[in-house]
Design brief:
Blueprint lengths: L4 H4 L5 H9 L4 H6 L2 E6 L11 H14 L3 E6 L5 H4 L7 H20 L3 E6 L2 H14 L3 E5 L6 E3 L2 E3 L1 H9 L4 H11 L11 H11 L16 H19 L3 H4 L2 H14 L4 H12 L6 H8 L16 H6 L2 H8 L16 H5 L24 E3 L8 E3 L10 E9 L2 H9 L7 E5 L14 H9 L7 E4 L11 E2 L20 E5 L4 E4 L3 H10 L10 H9 L13
Parallel strand pairs: 1-2, 1-3, 3-4, 9-10, 10-11, 11-12
Antiparallel strand pairs: 5-6, 7-8, 9-13, 13-14
Helix pairs in contact: 4-11, 6-7, 7-10, 7-14, 8-9, 8-20, 13-14, 13-15, 19-20
Length: 550
């Protein structure tokens, strides 16, 4: 029976019931069965979301079969790659809050007993996790799965390679031909980008059914498991288990350790921090620093290795990685299916391979993520060490300062960036952008021009999970808040040590004090709309960068 009986039963609920009856629900459905919201992020303009109608229908079938009533509604969805190369890419992080608020709005009005959210990509799926934490009703997410890799001229290709080819000046006819082969199926692009990182972390954080997060979109098991997920959602409501019961501090520590092991997208740092904040769980950059010292990268998924997320799934997926790092995890924490992670992992058998290694023989002797600190970023910055060329683990060079991705790209194309330089892109953080834009043009250009092994990049912005190179993001305090990055001048020496975790501006404190005295905070780039609201209400990057001003 619905847990919101008074809301739907009795004379005072007549006006509510009649609306659902007019929509096709029966009196018994409305009064007696659990109401399960089904938030569908279907959108025709992206392979990561264009197939979600079928998945959502399977979820709804499962809910009906288990004795609940599904109430489907739509939530916003975009594809980050569509906005790549445009100023509108800054909307992506803001989209996380918009998705969260959209789910919150509908769920609160309709008094759902539980919620199932169907999502695949980037900040959309992160927004559904944030919504689960905010609503704190029985909640789960069904993912759209991974895309199959493409095949071009007999070689496996993924979408990120097309982006690099464009900026490397590849012939237009070849680019056009590549377009036909790079993305051959529905699903999230099969690299360790933000989409797949978050689909994986959903399992660890008890929001996605174990073993289902990375099922490829092309595998019909995804439909069967989506139907099972719908049925499970009804059981979850009956049990009363909520995100606050299932996501503990230890659960989030497991998520951090898992992210280190798979070299997940650097954006996962923002999302884990924001989810913790939403639940009132203290998670800090120090937690990421702690586990970076303990958990090396053990997976070889692009860009840290040659394998795709499809390969990862069939090698055992999330549970296989958790089994490999089991001795480090908090395995006594609860799971959404009942019992503990120890109970689940007891039944997992996995052998070390080049796709998923054991902790005893990691693919890298360094973590998948590293926090850097120093006078340039006292609150912490983020780098993915497994994507940094060996010759750039330590780099020192002269700063060349730009205010956005477009200026930096233009400098690369004009030949103004040379080996030994350190590009600085600032005023692109949470407030400065606003929206903490991904610096994809510059990062792809560095690879395309062969400069990623000799040129560094430091920014208060963020990166796509597709990106690699000596690229340091999330510098905090950001330039708009008067962080040291706002004081950098052309020709200053910047030192980055990814092994020791240091990022330093080699300028005296006295000189920086003089520059700070003369610094003037620029006006916000956006004065109205969602971006302006975000800039005025977001937390800093080291606290998750979400609209959580409380």
């Amino acid at each position: 029976m619905t847990t919101n009986g008074a809301y739907w039963n009795g004379p005072k609920a007549t006006h509510r019931r009649v609306m659902l009856k007019a929509a096709g629900y029966t009196d018994k459905d409305i009064k007696k069965k659990p109401h399960i919201g089904v938030a569908n992020s279907f959108m025709e303009g992206s392979p990561g979301s264009a197939h979600l109608r079928q998945i959502t229908e399977a979820v709804k079938q499962g809910i009906w079969a288990a004795g609940g009533i599904p109430v489907e509604f739509g939530i916003p969805a975009t594809c980050g790659n569509v906005a790549n190369g445009a100023e509108e890419l800054k909307y992506e992080q803001v989209g996380r809050d918009i998705v969260c608020m959209s789910v919150e709005f509908v769920s609160k009005v309709h008094h759902f007993d539980g919620i199932v959210m169907v999502a695949s990509c980037d900040n959309i799926i992160a927004g559904t996790y944030l919504a689960a934490a905010r609503l704190d009703i029985p909640a789960m997410v069904v993912t759209g799965g991974s895309m199959q890799p493409g095949n071009y001229c007999g070689k496996q290709v993924v979408e990120a390679e097309l982006d690099v080819a464009v900026l490397a000046g590849e012939d237009e006819a070849i680019l056009s031909d590549m377009e036909e082969h790079v993305c051959p199926s529905f699903g999230a692009c099969p690299s360790m980008g933000t989409a797949n990182t978050m689909q994986m972390l959903g399992e660890v954080m008890n929001l996605v059914l174990p073993g289902t997060g990375t099922i490829p979109a092309s595998d019909n098991m995804r439909i069967r498991k989506s139907r099972e997920a719908g049925s499970f959602a009804v059981e979850l409501v009956k049990s009363g288990r909520k995100p606050s019961d299932l996501i503990t501090r230890e659960t989030l520590m497991n998520a951090i350790m898992f992210d280190m092991a798979v070299a997940g997208s650097t954006n996962a740092v923002l999302h884990i921090l924001a989810i913790g904040y939403e639940l009132g769980i203290k998670v800090t950059m120090e937690d990421f620093e702690k586990y970076a010292k303990e958990i090396p990268c053990i997976t070889g998924v692009i860009p840290s290795g040659p394998y795709t997320v499809v390969d990862f799934h069939y090698a055992g997926g999330v549970k296989a990685v958790m089994k490999m790092i089991e001795d480090k995890l908090f395995t006594d924490v609860p799971t959404m299916t009942g019992g503990t992670w120890k109970d689940i992992l007891n039944n997992v058998k996995v052998e070390s391979s080049d796709i998923i290694r054991s902790l005893d023989e990691p693919l890298f002797n360094e973590p998948g993520l590293q926090v850097l600190r120093g006078n340039l970023s006292p609150n912490g910055a983020i780098v993915r060490p497994t994507g940094v060329p060996e010759e750039m683990k330590y780099f020192k060079g002269e700063a060349k300062v730009y205010s956005n991705d477009f200026e930096s790209l233009a400098a690369i194309e004009k030949g103004e960036i040379v080996p030994g330089d350190v590009i600085v892109i600032r005023y692109e953080g949470c407030k400065g952008s606003p929206g903490m834009k991904e610096m994809m043009l510059t990062t792809d250009a560095l690879v395309g021009y062969g400069l990623h092994k000799s040129v560094g990049l430091v920014t208060d912005a963020r990166f796509s999970g597709f990106n690699y190179g000596a690229i340091v993001g999330h510098v905090s305090p950001e330039a708009y808040d008067g962080g040291t990055i706002a004081l950098v001048e052309n020709g200053d020496i910047i030192i980055v040590d990814t092994i020791k975790g240091e990022v330093t501006l080699d300028v005296s404190d006295e000189e920086l004090a003089i520059r700070r005295e003369n610094w003037v905070c620029p006006p916000l780039k956006e004065q109205k709309g969602a971006l302006a609201l975000f800039a005025k209400n977001c937390r800093p990057a080291e606290e998750g960068g979400a609209m959580q001003p409380w």
